[in-house]
Design a protein that fits this description.
Length: 288
């Protein structure tokens, strides 16, 4: 590993601090470091003088690996730039829970050395392809159809491969990948899905009818959301970003994308280890 790019959530001082530390360690090890433009602006000159600077959109051109300092949101931003690329992303958690950014800052020195030794795994994560009014978008975690008017439910007709599933009267509807199943969908009652499962999940957000539950479908299925003619406007949100506004009668098409995102994982850690660690599944509730 000879060329590594670094990006950080610069609004978080700890993210900048640990990104600086990582850059110093990589330089000491003889690695050519590429700093994202925004990060380079806030790093000390003695660091930036020894690094190259580039836009995140150029990471694929220069880097063999990207290290992201922040939380899952920072990593998702990088993923949108690198979707379909062979450049993997290593997420270092300077946020809170961090399912995607799973490397803790307390172990960053060890993690860097393991990366340089090649002692890591690269996993492919599926993504979503979203079509709205001729425009196309992608998401790693989920796409959400949510109300655009505060305090007013929306109605969303949902079909899977042209088969009518339900008319959701709710605050919104989520389509999540297995990767995104531990994010927004989980918070509103959706299931946790192992990343290796070839499925998607449709999860309603606060449905008016309590019998409307999360629905697992094959990831070869195509999901279509349509707003009825008398429905309120809705936002289309891809991984936390509003990408479009739907008006009555308009529709959104969601399917599994042909492109993947590559993530760096610890060689000695599995997805189930991560669940036990992040969700405290090993905690003994009987102990005080």
């Amino acid at each position: 590993m000879h060329r590594i790019a670094i990006i950080a959530y610069t609004a978080r001082p700890d993210a900048v601090k640990w990104a600086t530390h990582a850059a110093e360690r990589l330089i000491e090890e003889g690695v050519k470091v590429f700093l994202e433009d925004g990060l380079a602006e806030v790093l000390p000159e003695q660091i930036t003088a020894q690094c190259e600077t580039c836009a995140a959109t150029d990471f694929e051109k220069y880097a063999e690996l990207v290290i992201s300092f922040g939380g899952d949101g920072t990593l998702l931003g990088v993923a949108h730039v690198l979707i379909g690329s062979d450049v993997p992303i290593m997420g270092v958690n300077v946020g809170k829970l961090g399912f995607l950014a799973e490397f803790p800052v307390t172990l960053i020195d060890d993690a860097i050395m393991e990366i340089l030794k090649g002692n890591y795994r690269v996993v492919d994560r599926s993504t979503l392809h979203i079509t709205v009014g001729g425009a196309e978008f992608h998401a790693l975690n989920e796409v959400v159809i949510e109300r655009a008017v505060e305090a007013k439910m929306i109605e969303v007709r949902t079909t899977v491969d042209q088969h009518h599933v339900a008319d959701y009267r709710a605050d919104g509807v989520i389509v999540t990948t297995p990767t995104g199943s531990t994010a927004y969908s989980l918070a509103v009652g959706g299931p946790i899905i192992a990343p290796s499962a070839n499925v998607l999940c449709i999860t309603p957000i606060s449905p008016h009818t309590l019998t409307l539950r999360p629905l697992i479908i094959n990831d070869t299925n195509e999901v279509r959301f349509t707003l009825p003619s008398d429905s309120s406007e809705a936002h289309v949100v891809a991984d936390g970003r509003i990408v479009a506004t739907l008006k009555a009668g308009e529709e959104v098409l969601v399917r599994k994308s042909d492109h993947m995102v590559k993530l760096i994982k610890r060689a000695d850690n599995t997805y189930y280890d991560l669940l036990r660690e992040k969700l405290l599944w090993s905690a003994d509730a009987t102990r005080k």
